[in-house]
Write a structure and sequence with these properties.
The complex is a heterodimer of chains A (375) and B (197).
Chain A (H helix, E strand, L loop, with lengths): L12 E5 L3 E2 L5 E2 L2 E8 L9 E5 L26 E2 L4 E2 L4 E5 L14 E2 L4 E2 L9 H14 L7 E5 L1 H12 L6 E5 L7 H15 L17 H15 L2 H7 L18 H14 L4 H13 L10 H5 L5 E7 L7 H13 L4 E6 L13 H13 L3
Chain B lengths: L5 H10 L5 E5 L5 H10 L2 E6 L2 H9 L3 E4 L14 E7 L8 H11 E9 L4 H8 L24 H10 L2 E10 L2 E2 L4 H4 L2 E8 L2
Parallel strand pairs in B: 1-2, 1-4, 2-3, 4-5
Antiparallel strand pairs in B: 5-8, 6-7, 6-8
Classes of the chains: A alpha/beta (375), B alpha/beta (197).
Chain lengths: 375, 197
Amino acid sequence: MTHPQSVGIVTPQVARFTEPLSLRSGGTLPGFELVYETYGELNAARSNAVLVCHALSGSHHVAGLHADDPASVGWWDNLIGPGKPLDTRRFFVIGVNNLGGCYGSTGPRSINPATGRHWGADFPFITVEDWVAAQARLADHLGIERFAAVVGGSLGGMQAISWTLQYPDRIAHAVAVASAPKLTAQNIAFNEVARQAILTDPDFHGGHFYEHGVVPARGLKLARMLGHITYLSDDSMAEKFGRSYRHGKAVYSYDVEFEIESYLRYQGDKFASHFDANTYLLTTKALDYFDPAFEHGGNLAASLARSTADFLIMSFTTDWRFAPIRSREIVYALLHNRRNVSYAEIECAAGHDSFLLDDPHYHAVLRGYFDRIKL
Amino acid sequence: MNTSYRYDYEVITGWITPGEKVLDLGCGDGSLLKHLMETRQVQGYGVENDPDNLVTSLANGINVIQMDLEKGLAGFEDGFFDHVIMSLSLQAIHNTQGILTEMLRVGREAVVSFPNFGYWRHRQSILNGRMPVSESLPHQWFNTPNVRFFTIADFDALCEINGIAVRERLAFDEGKLMVDEPNFLASVAVYRLGRHN
């Protein structure tokens, strides 16, 4: 049974690209595939397309359900659907699994045509700019010259920003939620600990674990546990878990005693059971490298001078991983360039994860913004 | 913020040259900026901290930035705007002198309107022993968002002390221009302010 505001059953599609893609890291992908989903209908003028970019662990499955799995609700289903803030009766919405991903698009788990083996650690480094270039190929494939909007949270917001720099004529609106113009040293530090957990796992085998029939599950689990701590706020963790003892009191053991331990272990195990370790490494590096101001001597305003899109920037008061001040940097740099920009700072207790929730004010702002987009 | 006092909009609009960069502090539902965009083609930005007003401003098609004005305008560049407007919000801000300084830092001129506490009906109310409640001061003492209560004469004195140039001042009683004795006869005043050179 699907909710009346759900897009219902959706089927992923695959787009194949045979033209080589030059990567920022210097490498070239001879060809690649992208897995994507679409919701709603592309209008006759082809002016109502909205691209949704995923963050670290997201996928092309943004809304609706897969027919074979009733639990497979898309990761941003609360936002996208008929009558929802990003209304599929009006917009043609596209979700895509990024290059280097592990949900079906070409990535480290794919077979390297040159060797006939899994790419593994030989998969080239991918940047946010490369993802956007690949997404532009998908837009060509779907006959979309210009997006009404490109939307993303966190790392997805970086892609939305990059779209306005790489293809200023192909994007009318950029919506960047809980994002940043670049990571701070502290943020890179968290990524580095996560990567070290994976790289030092004995089952990692230098990234070629596929051939050994194992996965570096311990490393992935630790990486995810660390990530989860940073996605929540102190307050939300206190409220959700507090100091609750599983056995009602201390039993002096290294097994799960506190509920927060149980939560983190569960999330870590769940993640390690399906996510690809090489994708995790590549994606955290893409996060670290993103810094459009770098080529402009660190001047963000100068780097954003290229973009002509209108912007909606949003942040959450308790998000310390992508703090409001980072979003404000983007706002002021856009102001400097006299761009149309709106900014909302949402009171929400859930930390960085807030962008995936349906806080009423948050969704009201998104709805208000999407509603005023002219098609 | 109260947007029912459209006559201060007309005065403000008259002070704006087409194509200006305008910042509207406490922009409420965004109707003033929308009006200025339509009639003066301004590049406008509103600042608003109330979530509901923010959503309404977005729906009105203006650029709106969520920010707490008590913290000043850090991040906005010096002299970036032609006019920085604060329509009927100054009385609701604690940091009165700070925000006036900031307005004249980021703007060439500031436009400020506020309810005149010295209006004769307000004085009468006080004489009768009750806090004034009127069209320009619509709240009760216990639920008013206003935190500063001042008169036209008070504001003139503040500008004097702070070296702020009063370039123009218009005062109204329910939409009617009051030329004589504005501190007694006007319920709302609108100022155009600048820096002394």
